[in-house]
Amino acid sequence: MELVARRWPSLDSGGAVGAFASRKGEGMSGRKSVVATVLVVSCVLVAPMQGAVDLELRPVAPAYEIGDTVQVGIYASADGESGEVVRAVNVILEWDPGVMELIGVDDAGPYDWLMSGFFSDAELDGLNADCGPEIFCEPYTYLPYNDGDGYYQAIGNFSNTAVAPPSGLLVSILEFRALSMALGSELRIVSDVGGVTTTAVVGESGQDVLGALGTCSVNINPAVDWGMLSLSAPVNTCLWAPPGGSTYVDLVVSDLAQSVNGVQALVQYDETRLTFVGATGGDGLGSPWDAAAVAATQLDDGVVSVGGVLLGGSSDADSVVAELEFVTAPDITSGLTSVELLVQFPPLVTKLTNAATAEDVYPEVSGLQIVELAGDIDAEGDVDLADYAAFAVCYGSDVELGDCCCFDFDSDGDVDGDDYYFLHSAWTGPLSIP
Q1: Per-residue DSSP letters for 327-391?
Q2: Which pLDDT value is given to residue 386?
């Protein structure tokens, strides 16, 4: 009896073998022979298709201040209804190096990566060690030079795997130092930089399962301990604006932490109700800014930049930096007009100049409302009995004006019978409510 056998790929190599033997009839020689007939069933073991994994960026806090550590989490999120295995993550990041400086990585997530960080990639595109055109950092410090890009990598452990749920797996927290004020500065994940380095998510079977790429906006506000810039009514005047007449607004600096010698303020107003005329330094009453060089530049409809510089000096006193003049539209007889300070009107920002270091510092800002109807002390848009009651409290030449300035219609420093005549003429009664 002769047995014929053949060897086929084993299960380990992706094949399957099935065999059976059949007895054939006697041959011409009279001998009985058995031929082993091998039946081969071929199959290929294919890993199940893995869903995509998105990479997202999520700031830890909604806003930061200059000098703070900005924290932004990298998250891997399955875009299906179940979790997806993640064996490695490669991320190319871009940011504005004038706004934030990368200072480290905090592996605070739930998964313990075998390796995580900004490793030397000199053999690739050198994103992590780019000190400028044709200059390579030596030795590499495991933090990219602050030129606005970097290549982050996380490699999983062999003993257990990371799983990205639809809600997101925190891969790592990136830490930046906030360098300057910015509203909505972008931190981006990009797919590549035109070289060999690419953003990728390595899945269960070693394939790239990268899905969507995330972008986040970072808000960096001024440090609030440098003082206040605000708008207010000039001393002994009132913020009511007669139709077609002038009204004045003071730009005031206060609560300064140190001396300053420069101010840049971005002022926004309603150009349908007000026309900006100009700005003069100080208040003429002894402000240290009385002799300052002051200039105003119209940036856009309803936005003006006001700058002041103390020539050869500095001040930490609460004082009026500049007085702004506006003219109201001739057809405006009631209502309120807002005049406010803007934190930013790109590319400019509201700021002070530190006299000791010449560095820009950033104050808090505060705006105001203008009452446009003379005698409308409660700013309701009418002159009625409530305003008459307030007038009665203010009446008398021995009363300090204060809030009563709205009733000093002839600007003679008191509230008397002449002002009553003006108030009576301004009477509207309660406005009807539809």
Answers
A1: EE-TT--SSEEEEEEESEETTEE-EEEETTT--EE--EEE-EEEE-STT-TT-SSS--HHHHHHH
A2: 84
Q: Are 220 and 65 in contact (CB under 8 A)?
A: yes
Whether 253 and 363 have beta carbons less than 8 Å apart is answered as yes
pLDDT at 217: 93
Residues 412/391, Cβ–Cβ less than 8 Å: no
Q: Which residue type occupies 259?
A: S
Find, among 93, 289, 82, 287, the residue nearest to 172 by Cα: 93
In the block, which residue shows the tokens 């007939």?
A: 37
Q: Which tokens belong to 260? A: 């300053």
Question: Do strands 53-59 and 210-213 pair parallel, antiparallel, or not at all (unpaired)?
Answer: parallel
d(CA 57, CA 44): 39
The residues, ordered by sequence, that sit 6+ positions from 207 with a Cβ below 8 Å of its Cβ are 50
User: How high is the pLDDT of residue 336?
Assistant: 77
Parallel, antiparallel or unpaired: strands 84-86 and 162-164? antiparallel
Q: Which of 307, 300, 248, 240 is nearest to 271 (CA)?
A: 300
- Residue 63 makes CB contacts below 8 A (sequence gap 6+) with 219, 220, 221
Q: In the Cβ-directed half-sphere of 275, how many Cα atoms lie within 13 Å?
A: 10
Going by their DSSP bridges, the two strands 115-117 and 84-86 should be labelled as: unpaired
Three-class DSSP category at 121: coil
Low-confidence ranges of the chain (pLDDT < 70): 1-49, 132-137, 223-224, 236-238, 333-334, 379, 397-403, 411, 431-434
Cβ atoms 174, 168 nearer than 8 A:
no
